[in-house]
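User: I'm writing a short report section on ligand binding and want a predicted complex to refer to. Could you take this sequence and flavin-adenine dinucleotide and write out the structure as tokens? A short remark afterwards would be nice.
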Amino acid sequence: MSLVPHLAFLPQPSPVTQYDAVVVGAGPYGLSTAAHLIGRGLTVAVFGKTFEFWRNHMPKDMLLRSHWWATNLSDPGRQYGFERYFRESKYQKCFPVPLEAFIDYGLWFQKRAVPHVDETYVSSIQREGNHFVLTLEDGRTVQSAVVVMAIGVYYYAHWPEEFGHLPSGLASHSCQHNDLGRFKGQQVLVVGGGASGTDYAALLHEAGASVHVVTHRPILWFGPDRTNERTIRERILAPNNGIAPGWPSWILEHVPFFFNLFPQEAKDKYNSNYQSGATDWLREGIIGKATLHEGHRVVTMSVVEGKVDAVISDGAKVRVDHVIMATGYKVDIGKLTMIHPSLLGEIKTDMSIPLLNHRFESSVPGLYFVGLTSVRAFGPLYRFVVGCKAAARRVASSVTRKRVGRSPAAAAEDLLEIVMRRSARACFRALKNNSIYQRSL
Ligand SMILES: Cc1cc2nc3c(=O)[nH]c(=O)nc-3n(C[C@H](O)[C@H](O)[C@H](O)COP(=O)(O)OP(=O)(O)OC[C@H]3O[C@@H](n4cnc5c(N)ncnc54)[C@H](O)[C@@H]3O)c2cc1C
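Assistant: Sure. The structure tokens for the complex follow:
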């Protein structure tokens, strides 16, 4: 008998598959970007669970804040918009859109525009020479010249440091819940009164919980949606668009790279003024139903007899069964555990946010970030699904240029962008010297 083991029993290196581009994430941004990359004839792999955040990390009875026409995914042939889905499905066009309808639309879009999503997570991304090596959770390895990070918001869930001591059984982040029915008959404290805080407060009440909401500023209530009733004058003064009526939002949506032209200082100022508010239809579920501590903070929280005792800055003391942190999301690429430390060290960042060029590409050539990670560079449009189209098209065009070179049209586009960027900077310098602007800082 031979002492050399049969080849079949030797540990075999996992076969390596090579792609032009790998998209990490199968939410609205990942699917749209993949659809555009595929449309350009590239070999593309997509990893991630289709619409996972929407299916598992939002309350199942939630209603979308965006209109259906502002919640389209994007494909290069414009074949798979929400409108067509309404025609072909059991759903009617409506406002607000139920979460379930959007999830079903997302799954329908994926089957048609990006049929081969591999639901395996990526566990490690490294750079080797001029390509990336991605290791999947099941041990497979793939290589790609380009990686598009479309990992969404989940990793960035913000948990205030002062409440880090609360055990996970008694406190959770809002994104950890899909079914709020488990809180029936319980006392729940919601920290945060922005879009998520108010959504959760109303849905918790509906699920039979007694709810306290602590919010450091008064809740910003949006007026009733009058999109279809607005007069011509109103629409001229503040045009309809996918974010909220008004010229600034209109510009963000219709000139999607205008924001990116400005210096970072101006962009940070604009982003920091952006405030998340509560939709009008939640009033009924919150006012007079939840106990609101508006303009206040939680001073202390301590665990007593298996519950949480909270002291609020208005003097109230409440004992609750559970605390939900509706404290939003804060980009920090250090939290993206799938990026290997060696690659993480190569990505230039500021405040833990990757610096991106005007094509969503980081300082590591071929590594792109879309969605929430890109908001500091590209503006609030990219917080929402409505930003998918612009981001997907731009990333696909950038990746194609790298492979086949710049077309004359692309060269003209670049030239125009240089001129616009210089003009924007000049405008900003002039504005900075203006006394009104200085007083507003
Ligand atoms: C409560 C709430 C309500 C909202 N309502 C609206 C609304 O009404 N309208 C609107 O426009 N926007 C809304 N938003 C914003 C919206 O969630 C984002 O704009 C959108 O989900 C971003 O899409 P995305 O593709 O970037 O990420 P996500 O939808 O978060 O998708 C992330 C993807 O990454 C994948 N992934 C994660 N880790 C890995 C890994 N290691 N390997 C591979 N894949 C991975 C996941 O499986 C998933 O497929 C809301 C947000 C919240 C929190």
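A remark for your report: The chain has two domains: 17-156+330-405, 161-222+277-325. The radius of gyration is 24 Å.
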